[in-house]
Predict the structure.
Amino acid sequence: MRAVIYVRVSTKDQVKNLSLPTQRKACIEYCQRQNLLVDKVFVEEGESAKTADRTELKNLLAYCLKNKGRINTIVVYAVNRFARERHSHVVLRAQLSSLGITLRSATEPIDDSSTGKLIESMVSAIAEFDNDVRSERTVAGMKARLEGGSWAFRPPLGYIIGTGASGAKILMSDPQRAPLITKAFLMYATGLYTRRQVLDMVTHLGLTTRRGMPVSGQTFSQLLRQSLYAGVLEVPSWGVRQSSNAPSLVTSETFDKVQRLLDGKRCLMTPHQRNNPDFPLRHFVECGLCGRRLTGSWSKGRKGRRYAYYRCANRSCRGVNVRRDVMHRLFIDFLGQLQPRAEYLRLFGKIILDVWKQRQQQAAELHAAAVDRLTVRRERKQRLVEAFIYERVIDQSTYQDQLDKLNQEIALAEIEERDARIDQIDIESAVSFGEFMLLNAASLWVNLSLEQKQRFQQVLFPRGVRFAGGVYRTEQTSMIFSELAVVQPKKEDLVALTGIEPVFQP
């Protein structure tokens, strides 16, 4: 009769003590007493019995399946080393039974008799009860820590665990990642960048996970929602909201701006990623009748010709169904009404200069990071050459493999460094262009790309525009321009009477 032994500890700390050797010795002695030949021993280091992701348990089940008919028994130190939840225990036992394998405990009298099965059931129930009690105590302790202002989970990216003056563990700012987290919030709060653009920027500056891997888009989205960065401990499922003892990485104002942008409650100066270049006003202009944003599409006429139309996205409304060229012509006329405020026109040069300095600083940071990466790789290549030629501590094959890898990394780093070089900008020309933009918004819009049109629209009209009866209206223009006609209560001045729909001709 052949047996497989399975031993496990729940935490990495327990790996260092005598728990594993003790379990292994007891299981081997049990097999000797029962005349069982030990075929293999599986050792699970630091994995909880509550999770199904236990590596060695999976290996054990795969081994038993591969050796079906050859393995008769699995021996564990105790039932709670096998599973801490009754359902999991029953599922695993059923899997073993289908392979003709029984479960035995080195410290508990379980077998295939009715009494043995009862004892096994009772032991597994006690193990689950013990685990539930531990979980309740753990949750209570974590909630108490949170209510006291201390973080009770794994530190978010940007924080590390340190030791306070009293010797207690506290959260501290990660000197490498915290500044990049702060920069990410500040950049996104401007409304000028998409999440992907911000993520790409801070990734180039060196933001990585704790394992040195790039931060994924999903992780970055969750990061922007983490209130701990603004000094607030919040766990809605536990009803906890408390000021944090950890240092804040962003101000509450910046965090709130980011949340409004993520929720779509604040104007984002970046284009919709899936917009059609044929319809730059799509998702920007609202229907004056129902308030839904307009969509755009192509339609075929009777003779097979295709026509572009803007329509209200609300099928039951039909408040807007207008040819694209008409919508664009009316929008250009609407832009022609914009007149820059004199005080802003005088200060525009200073505004442009401030923005230019900010962009130059960002470009300088990106370039410096790219140079650092390139320098590190060149130094690695030099050490590799010295190790092979002068010290002779590596062989030809290893040297060539590593050299090829480093040459590839250096080539990519050189490309990054060239792309990140700071362009010299004629600031006087930039100011002149800015003044032209303020004085000629309509003609400028016509010649912009889709992305530029959408950014421009958002800057000019922070709260968007509404369209009804062949007329554009807005509740607010950018502070740079004088106010246009203000929209009154929505269904009075914007729409025609019920049943009257204006007809537009190309």
In short: Residues 342-389 form the longest helix (48 residues). DSSP finds 16 helices and 14 strands in the chain.
